[in-house]
Fold:
Amino acid sequence: MILTVAFYSTPEGKSIVEEGVAPTVEVHAKSQDPDASTDTEEPPPLGPGQLPTSDDPVYNKALELPVGSQLKPN
Structure:
């Protein structure tokens, strides 16, 4: 029998399982109009091969970030 144990940690030695990982860049959902009706349903999650729409804030933020850039943590 082979027993393996994985311990995932950040470069600083903090446990990812116990402490999690803070995002480098925070992206907030679209602001909602407080007067708008709350009866609208959230769109379903994207499936394999589907692309996000142009009004997706996470997608748009990812396009703004240069590839391989060195970002400073928040």
